[in-house]
Structure formats: C-alpha cells, structure tokens
Amino acid sequence: MKRKTAKEILAESFRELAESKKIDKITIQEIADNCEYSPATFYRHFRDKYDLIAWDYAGRIEKIMMRIGKGGYVWRQALQDVLVYYQSEREYLANLLVHTSGHDSFIQYMTEINTQALTAYIQSVSGRADLDHKEKLYIRMYCIGTVSLSCEWILGKFSASAEELANIFEDSLPVPLRPLLLEKREL
Description:
Layout: H1 6-18, H2 28-34, H3 39-45, H4 49-65, H5 75-88, H6 90-98, H7 106-126, H8 133-154, H9 162-171, H10 178-182
C-alpha cells in the first residue's frame, strides 16, 4: 500500500478548498487546517500556495510525459491525455487561470512546466544533454501556443473535443521537432 506524502495531502487539501473558493482567497492557514497540519508543515514543503500549485501540476503532466515511448505510447496520445486531464479538471483549472495573477499567474506556470517537460523529453530521445538555441526557441514557441490555446479551451472560449485539439497540436508541431516527437520509439 502506497502512503500519501505530506505534499500530496497538502495538494489534496488545496484542491478540496478550490472546489468552493477562489484560488486567490485561499490562505496557507486554511490549507493546513483543512488537512489537520500546521502552517509550519506547509512551509517545510512549499514556499507558498503557488509553489504547491506548480508542484501539483508538474507532477500530473510528468506522469503523462514519462509514458511516451513505452508500450507504443506516442506523442499524439500524450497530447490527447493531457487534454483529457484538462477537460476532467476544467473547473479547477479555470479557477487557477482566472484567480491567479501577476508573476504567479498559472498560465506562466503551465508554460514553464510544459516547456521543461518537453525539453527533457526531447533531450532523452535525442541523446543530447543540451539543445541548441534554435531548438529551445521552437520548444518555447510551441509551448506558449499550445498552453494559450488550451487555456482558452478550458475557459470555454471555443468548443472542441480533446481529440480534435490534440490533432491540431500535433499538426502545428514545428518542423525541426517533428522527427523527435512523431517517430514511434521505445525508450
């Protein structure tokens, strides 16, 4: 039996509070009280609630990205699975998008985390520890675009299925990244 870590319990507490409260109104004290921890326990694991949000989101995205190349799991399926996750968590993610601002904006976290995850994956399939400047810019541009469109979709600015959006994301891959992401490979 896998036991939950303090970080996981704190993240669950935060998510539970976010079901009925705007993100920017949730306090560290409330997060801690909700799971019967102290604020000191919270601060042993996270700098602030935005650090908790980023950690929780990064972990969920990493679980999907780590499956690429295993058992026939390909980039296209990862795109769709991320979008299905967004769809299943639409209310929570919309709360994050609408009720965080400034340097702690969730859209900025999403972009950075997705950029890091895609960079790490490309490094692993290319066998190179460092990518060139142009490759990094292609990755960044792609992540900015896909995150921006995903956020509009989460907020209901247009209608599309997860599969349709995944197809658009795959079709819009920059040409230099295509061989690294679209070839079937077993890691």
